[in-house]
Amino acid sequence: MPEKGFAEAFGVTEEARAKINLALHVTGQRADGYHLLDMLVTFADCGDRLGFLPAKADAFTLSGRFGETLAGDSGTNLVLRARDLLREAVGVLAFPVHIHLEKNLPVASGIGGGSADAAATLRGLMRLWGMSLPAEALAALALRLGADVPMCVESRPLIARGIGEQIEAVPDLPAFAMVLANPLKGVSTPEVFRRLATKNNPSLNLASGLTGSAGWLAMIGAARNDLEPPARQLVPEIAVISAMLQGRGALLTRMSGSGATCFGIFASMVEAQEAATALHGTRPDWYFQATETISGGM
Ligand code: C5P
Q1: Known catalytic residue: 285?
Q2: What pLDDT shows up at residue 7?
Q3: Start and end of every GHMP kinase C-terminal domain (predicted)?
Q4: What are the Cα distances from residue 37, in Å, to 74, 161, 212?
């Protein structure tokens, strides 16, 4: 990151919040191989940050704990693909841009870092280029970048169905005190899907009229992440990290997305902070982050 504060250094900045699958049910498979999912999704108050500046020529710079991991990855980098796709849609108005990505989230970790970065790029460049797309066109463009990108454009509590593109806001979802934990082993999403034993699992039943955290916790506790068993085969540390979170007092632990990040929900942010500090002391080489998720009312 440049010397000055992030917001002062860049004309336009965007947060790319970590995406957390509170539940993920695999309910079927489309003819093209993509899986049909029912997901209850929320977003954390931590994530990557992106900055955008007009420039003489396109440029892309990286910083942050996980910036190194992405260096040299220009062909597959979702930020650059999002820039190019939006520019194609805009045409002549899309002047060259310097994009800076502060990569604070682990890569390939089930909390949507790449998808959130792509979504933040779409939001940021629309502001920088002084243009907007109708919501439906933006969602369709986002979907071309990845199944999780449309929900990251929304970045608020929601239910996503289909392959992730049928989105419905969940305004009643409360904020949760959480610890995100990852053994820093990247997981291949296609490989996790390939290892699924069953693809026709029961859909997610969202009870109506839930109030307060306790009701939501019970409902989430009764739901599942169907990708957790196959991911545990690939990364045995997921079981270890889940037990560590439980040992520190988590009320509920589960894996997010295709892993390997697990989350623990705690009774308060004080408890979440204490747990993250203690866990970091035990395994300084792993990733532990205390965070409060945003509520549906925002
Ligand atoms: O859309 P995205 O690029 O994020 O997906 C990565 C891979 O995960 C896909 O190529 C596919 O193998 C798998 N996937 C799936 N069903 C989904 C989402 C992803 O099978 N709904």
Answers
A1: no
A2: 87
A3: 223-279
A4: 30, 6, 26
Q: Is 114 annotated as a binding residue?
A: yes
278 C-beta neighbours (distance < 10 Å), count: 15
229 is in an annotated binding site: no
* Band (213; pLDDT cuts 50, 70, 90): confident
CA dihedral over 141, 144, 145, 147, signed as positive or negative: positive
C-alpha 213, offset from chain centre: 22
For ligand 1, is residue 209 a contact (CB within 6 Å)?
Answer: no
Q: What is the pTM of this model?
A: 0.95
Q: Residue 5: its pLDDT value, please?
A: 85
| Span between the terminal Cα atoms of the chain, in Å | 28
The residue whose CA is least distant from atom 11 of ligand 1 is 190
Domains of the chain: 8-169 (3.30.230.10), 177-292 (3.30.70.890)
Pocket lining: 34 vs ligand 1, CB cutoff 6 Å: yes
Q: What angle do CA 16, 41, 154 make, to 5 degrees?
A: 45
Which of these is catalytic: 19, 38, 117, 226?
19
Q: Ligand 1: which atom is nearest the Cα of residue 163?
A: 21
**Cα 92 versus chain centre, distance:** 32
DSSP assignment string, 9-38:
H-SEEEEEEEEEEEEEEEEEE-TTSPEEEE
pLDDT tens for 81-111 read 999 999 999 887 799 999 999 999 999 899 9
β-partners of residue 166 are 161
- ipTM of this model? 0.94
Residue 271 sits at φ, ψ, to 5 deg, of: -65, -40
Q: Are 117 and 101 in contact (CB under 8 A)?
A: yes
Ligand 1 contacts CB of residue 19 (under 6 A): no
Q: Tell me: the pLDDT tens digits for 115-143?
A: 999 999 999 999 999 999 999 999 999 99
